[in-house]
Design a protein that fits this description.
Blueprint lengths: L1 H79 L1
């Protein structure tokens, strides 16, 4: 009787262990999937940040060019009056 009881307990424990390992594998796979999504979000955000920095630099260069034109116009206006 003890042998049968032990065999059943071992079998049940083995099934539980396999089920737990399956849960770990699913958790691992879900985390892998989440990491892929997060990686895409990070890459997209990085690209947008780089684009915004380029736009900011272009705007600053435009300001410098405009200020230089303003200086030349001021000299022309003041000299022509």
């Amino acid at each position: 009787m003890f042998k049968k009881n032990h065999s059943k307990q071992i079998l049940r424990a083995s099934k539980r262990a396999k089920g737990a390992m399956g849960m770990f594998q699913r958790a691992h796979d879900e985390l892998d999937s989440a990491n892929e999504v997060l990686g895409k979000v990070a890459d997209d955000a990085q690209a947008k940040a780089e684009q915004l920095l380029r736009h900011a630099e272009e705007a600053k260069q435009g300001i410098v060019a405009n200020v230089n034109v303003q200086k030349n116009l001021k000299s022309f206006i003041e000299g022509g009056v």
